[in-house]
Amino acid sequence: MRIFGRARHRPSATWRQATDRAFTLIRDGRYEDAGALLTRAADLEPWLSESWFNLALLHKFRHDWEQARAAGLRAVALLDRGTGAPDWWNLGIAATALQDWPLARRAWQAYGLRLPDQVGGEGAAVDAPLQAPLGSAAVRLSPEGESEVVWGRRLDPARTEVLSIPLPSSGRRWGEVVLHDGVPHGERVVSRGAVYPVFDEIELWAPSPVPTYLVLLEAATREDRDAMERLAADAGYAAEDWSSSVRLLCRTCSESRMPADDRHFEHHDPHDQGEPGHPGRLSHRSASGPWVPERECGIAAPAGLVRGLLDGWVADSPDSRAYRDLEEVC
């Protein structure tokens, strides 16, 4: 994150010592003390883009987006390289957090990304929200705590809409948009062979009004379970059989390249949830092993709809379906 010894200028030993010490403090979570040292480093070498990049990075860790944007702008003004500078990427994250869409577009383009035309074509408002869909990805919610990897749809380089139903411990909901970092920590390989990055959540960007319910299903067959998920998806919401979609992984496994449909990893922290695709239909499940009719299921749907969905599911095949213990959990 810190680049020393550029041909045009070599930072002083004092600058290096202050910067190195600051990043040691950051790793210990001592952001205030680190900030004092990085501010001193910027005073010592204000013409170095690294001075301001490091400050912008610290403000990103603190979620102080106004300061991150200000320091990031100073960093990119001093760059002596073309596309690909991480200074532009961090500036794009700060601009996205602040919904400064003109600056976000400028940052991603300066980094080297090709963005689609503005919504509405020629003459559209430059302050319209950025829409640059980048396909599916996985996001690690609460990366510093009881983390959980869920699947989602990337709306732009720094935002992903969550399409899995997160477990209640995450405090997140289906349909929420999270701001995430740009460097992946891990990958997921799906059965088709496609590889998807896993990005770490920074913070919640847009909440979802749709609550999460936990219910115990009695589904005589896999087809009965699938019918519940299909019914919720057809209504525009989601149901997910947590009994088969969740696996527990140690952190080392989670941050490596892992098959998304492998059921042989039963470690302790954190856990994954399924394969990208339709938010209500998870296609990774294996047909091997005996089927257990009792399924712990998450449902993301409005309060006025969720019981109707379940009753309709049972009514379609009352001899093979039932439910109990419906509870709102997030």
Structural overview:
This protein is of the alpha+beta class. Helices cover 35% and strands 23% of the residues. Mean pLDDT is 85; it is low at 1-7, 119-124, 262-271 and 273-287. The two termini are 37 Å apart. A hairpin with a 6-residue loop joins strand 1 (135-141) and strand 2 (148-156). It folds into two domains: 13-111, Tetratricopeptide repeat domain (Serine Threonine Protein Phosphatase 5, Tetratricopeptide repeat, Alpha Horseshoe), CATH 1.25.40; 131-281 and 291-330, no CATH class. The protein contains ten helices and 13 strands. Helix 3 (49-62) packs antiparallel against helix 4. The strands form three sheets. Strands 1-2-3-4-6 form a five-stranded mixed β-barrel. A four-stranded antiparallel beta sheet has the order 8-12-7-13. A two-stranded antiparallel ribbon has the order 9-11.
Topology record:
Elements (H helix, E strand, L loop, with lengths): L12 H15 L3 H14 L4 H14 L2 H13 L8 H12 L3 H11 L23 E7 L6 E9 L2 E4 L14 E4 L6 E3 L5 E12 L5 E8 L2 H13 L3 E4 H4 E3 L2 H4 L2 E3 L11 E3 L20 E7 L2 H14 L4 E8 L2
Parallel strand pairs: 1-6, 5-10
Antiparallel strand pairs: 1-2, 2-3, 3-4, 4-6, 5-6, 7-12, 7-13, 8-12, 9-11
Helix pairs in contact: 1-2, 2-3, 3-4, 3-5, 4-5, 5-6
Protein name: Tetratricopeptide repeat protein
InterPro entries: TPR-like_helical_dom_sf
Class by alpha and beta content: alpha+beta
* Largest pleated sheet: 5 strands, mixed, barrel
Distance between the termini: 37 Å
Number of DSSP E strands: 13
The whole-angstrom Rg is: 23 Å
**Outline type:** elongated
Helix content: 25-40%
List the uncertain runs. Answer: 1-7, 119-124, 262-271, 273-287
- Proportion of beta-strand residues: 15-25%
